[in-house]
Amino acid sequence: MTIREPVPQGPLKTPFYPRVEKLDIVNQWHEWKGFSSPDALHCEDLEYFAIRNGTGVFDLSPMTKYRITGPDVLEYLNRLVTRDMAKIRPGRVAYAVWCDDQGQVIDDGTIFHLREGEYRLCCQERHFAWFQAATIGFDVNVVHETEDIAGLAVQGPTSYSVLSTMGVQGLEELKPFGLIHVDFQGIEMMVSRTGFTADLGYELWIDPDKALDLWDALFEAGREYKIRAIGTHALELARIEAGYLAPYAEFLPVDETIRTGRSRSPFELGLGWLVDFKKPNFNGRRALAKEQRNGSKWQLVKLDIEGNKTADSSYIFSNSKAKGGAIGFVTSAAWSPVCKQNIALGTVRTPHGKPGDTVWVEIYYQREMHWNRAMAKAIVADKPFWFPSRRGATPPGPY
Amino acid sequence: MESRFDAIVVGAGHNGLVCSALLAKAGKRVLVLEANDQVGGAAITREFAEGYSVSACAHLLYQLQPEVRKDLRLTARLACEDMTTIALGEDGNHLRLRADSVEGVSDEDAEQYRSFRKRMARFSDLLRKYFNKTPPRVGTRGIKDLATLGQLGLDIRMLGKAEMEAFLRLIFMNIHDEVTERFEKPLLKGAISLDAVLGTHLGPRSPNTMMTYLYRMAGGHGRTGVPAGGMGSVSNELAQAARTAGATIRTGMPVKRIIIENGRATGVETESGDRFDSLKVISNADPKTTLMKLIGAKHAETGFARRVSNLRAKGNAAKLHLALDGLPTVDGLSRKDFAERFVIAPDEHYVERAFNPAKYGESSPEPVFEITFPSFRDETLAPTGKHVMSAVVQYAPYALKGGWNDEAKAQFMKAIIAALSKYMPDIEQRMTASELLTPADIESEFHMTGGHWHHAELSLDQFLFVRPVNGAAQYQLPIDGVYLCGAGAHPGGGVSGAAGRNAARAILSREKAA
């Protein structure tokens, strides 16, 4: 009789868990697609400054990953996502968004063209049913491989130096959204110049069996470069500064919505640049073409808000008297330490929300139990709040 | 020959012919391409044994819409009309069911039958009105859609409070519950149950079999007829109407694919390599064949392709043709009764039990039958003195466990003969030739996925606003220039012409609006 392995109970542990757990002091964890993931390990602020001034290391193994291969793979991806994947050569990575037939966003993610005809798609949510349905009529193979690959984000100005010290070759020529395959202690590791922080940074992808060796080598190499393991709170702050979208904040995946009008199109999320109408057919094409003709209902905005009170969950108005009702609401907000700005992302009804527009956010804040309300002026920004030149410099400078 | 047309119709089934005739009448240059050598699709007459011909698939005419007859000035001459349904009793005590009366039952049952049929006639009239319209798009603010929806609501309300409540209750119900509430006589319950499930993958206790019963009545209140010369004569008349109006019909020209260029239809390519151009391609093929084979799912969006691939379209009705050297003996019937329609469905449980094995991929060991002897009033079908029996036999699931090989067919044939012999003891001696078409045969001969009469199961989730699927219920697919006009489109199958007529009207009115 064979004895079956016990089914793991409780949250799953990533391949890096033994190391992450050792560094954990605050014991604040949350669940991310079945895995334990730390909010913070030691101190949120220090972790944030590691991203901006040193190197922050984030365990992104729970990130959903699919391997997509087969003779029709390019045609398949081109029907699946809104941008033209023919332009993404092997060794390149594409940020992409995919929609349902009504042109409403299901999710966004990155597609790695690993080798000719071989792709990996990474995203936050799980979409196997949709990706599988999308194979009808195509000769492709979609494999869920989240647990087959361990991933680390290595982000910050010294990240190049850390990886070089660790012995990674070829980084000096690796451009943003590029990927290379390198040797790590005798096995292949994929290194991509990608991230969620809008700073110089890399992501490392490796066999889970080698995860701990990688972690050790990385932290050994980073000793002189202010390397620090980080949790999601620090990353979230960097994400808002970068102006990147998060599902369940800036948009709700359309398959999770019940009420009409609660989903968003790529245009409404400021992702019109990802929609390529030169392709004859892709999911949502007809609806998006119509939306482009008739105009969108919503507009994603980046807000530079006066004062220092964060505008969490605030309503947005067109005037300080809140006349005419709210035109939208804030979806993510933070005080940005590095920009010294009170920033937010939000969604407003068109025609509001053009770059340079002035809007007003209604901020509730608490002082000694009592609640106060402030109307704060905000300017719609057209650029990300944080976008340092080192992010794009190739070769990156040694900090 | 010319290669550019205003519209190309793929398939000369009866709906394709109705559609092309109406488009041609409206001045369009129409090309119809039919894979088989004969027009009509599943509405044809063909020889199955030397000297014996029969309606090869559809054999009774009960739904041909008056609108279609009128628009195309059809005569559709009948050899038998307003046929009585004789529910055969093993003991020779048969029931005779007519549109509004029944013989052979108690007074209570007879009275119940009258009121049941009266109500069914009223409800089917209501449905019929909407079977001849393009279904409204739900969730839009289009004036026409809202008006049709509003009219439907109003029509239901105008039934009166009690009848409205009955309608809304019954339409979702199964026929078994209704017949057991109303009737005593098992044979009566069996016969009515059978009418609700003919041609479907449903048993009398399956949901929405009241709706399928009403569907059958929406035309002539369930009055059946046999066309003179078999069903093929109806198709030939339709083809003649189309040709007279100017349509070109070419048979033996299977379409290989519908050409999609830059996201829209631009024509078709035939198996023989000919290419015909048109910005409108209207498919009389079933929705799955249309999207998966002719167009290619990759040209559609994922959600739509998934809905079409999930369409339930697995036929469960076999067609039986027997060449007989004389009429069989049936206890308690006179000779002239052979002009009528026979059913074998001894009681309501028997019908459900016949269905049970089909759920698990097995054919019925004790099948149910709808039987006609079309040669009785039509000498063209069989040599003098000899006869043809045409029967629908259920259940014969399309996805039979192990497939429909010779052995499986022989086994089902044995069950058929055993069941028939109970009522016609000399049937085997009378038989000189036979043909059994399983849904697999029907699929390959008539090119319909699953060999299903309706191209897609007739059930509430594939009905009206969502037939065949959401996004294609107004005859146009979400691919520019491609339309559906067959049984898979609203309202469904049966020789009614409604889908073909509605499609033509939708295409013409869309053109006018543009």
Total helical segments of chain B: 16
Which whole number gives the mean pLDDT of chain A?
A: 96
List unreliable stretches of 5+ residues of chain A: none
Described by strand count, sense and barrel closure, the largest sheet of chain A is: 6 strands, mixed
User: Segments of chain B where pLDDT lies below 50 for 5+ residues?
Assistant: none
Average pLDDT taken over every residue of chain B: 96
**How much helical structure, as a percent, in the residues of chain B?**
25-40%
In the CATH hierarchy, the architecture of the domain at 7-52 and 64-77 and 231-312 and 451-513 in chain B is 3-Layer(bba) Sandwich
Q: Which range best describes the helical content of chain A: under 10%, 10-25%, 25-40%, 40-55%, 55-70% or over 70%?
A: 10-25%
| CATH level 4 superfamily of the domain at 17-61 and 149-230 in chain A | Probable tRNA modification gtpase trme, domain 1
State the oligomer.
Answer: heterodimer
The class by helix and strand makeup of chain A works out as alpha+beta
User: Looking at CATH, which topology of the domain at 17-61 and 149-230 in chain A would you report?
Assistant: Gyrase A, domain 2
Following the backbone from N to C, one meets helices and strands of chain A in this order, namely: HEEHEEHEEEHEEHEEEHEHHEEEEEE
**What's the story with the biggest beta sheet of chain B?**
8 strands, mixed
Radius of gyration of chain B: 22 Å
In CATH, what is the class of the domain at 17-61 and 149-230 in chain A? Alpha Beta
Give me the CATH fold name of the domain at 7-52 and 64-77 and 231-312 and 451-513 in chain B: FAD/NAD(P)-binding domain
